[in-house]
């Protein structure tokens, strides 16, 4: 992945809690964040004693390289937010500048934590649909603002493959949001849900409290099927 093609935009632990309806018990689980980018979720939860690992292709780059890319795209994103302000709900965030300051705070926390997190193995260069982990290595896998949001860039089969892989490595999977960049429910969602059910998983769409992008009110929660024990197959 070329860093020049990445638009880094980090979210905080508080936003993760709201987006994924995370309760205190969830935060005691062994968590995998898929596509976390420069979010401060890992840094904040680790500092609070949590167990979390983040994967993203951009983790092949240094903190300074990521910082420079953030500085390049930050004013561009703020300008875009201002132009499309009618597509958002301005309750939690008051205006585009408030969004920008919150995001920059989260990204600065990430950048401060990133070097030691790399050394500790908490930030892993990897991306869906191939994760370098064992079956059921995690209790909970989260994916924020990647699947479904980029439905034009990622086709139906890529969504299915990504979610099946998350279900392989985690007991439960949660994805937010379920709308595309246009604010409409992703056209991939019905078929993805069917494919997950056909694979033996238990998908459900659930309302969350997080409100920012209009139309983004729900997450997908998937309770993964128990892995097949080869000793029970008779082979």
Provide a descriptive summary of the structure in words.
The chain is of the alpha/beta class and 235 residues long. 36% of the residues lie in helices and 16% in strands. Helix 2 (41-47) packs across helix 4 and helix 3 packs antiparallel against helix 4 (96-120). The longest helix is centred in the middle third of the chain and has 25 residues, at 96-120. The protein is globular and about 50 Å long. The mean pLDDT is 95.
Question: Topology, pairings included?
Answer:
Layout lengths: L12 H7 L10 E5 L6 H7 L3 E5 L7 H21 L12 H25 L2 E2 L13 E7 L11 H14 E7 L12 H10 L3 E6 L10 E6 L12
Parallel strand pairs: 1-2, 1-4, 2-3, 4-5
Antiparallel strand pairs: 5-7, 6-7
Helix pairs in contact: 2-4, 3-4, 5-6
User: What level of helicity do the residues show?
Assistant: 25-40%
Structural class: alpha/beta
Oligomer: single chain
User: How would you write the strand order of the largest sheet?
Assistant: 3-2-1-4-5-7-6
The global form is: globular
Count all strands and give the number: 7
Q: Proportion of β residues?
A: 15-25%
Largest sheet: 7 strands, mixed
Q: Output the CATH topology.
A: Rossmann fold
Mean model confidence by pLDDT: 95
The total tally of domains equals: 1
GO molecular function, one term: methyltransferase activity
Keywords: Methyltransferase, Transferase
Protein name: Class I SAM-dependent methyltransferase
Organism: Spongiibacter thalassae
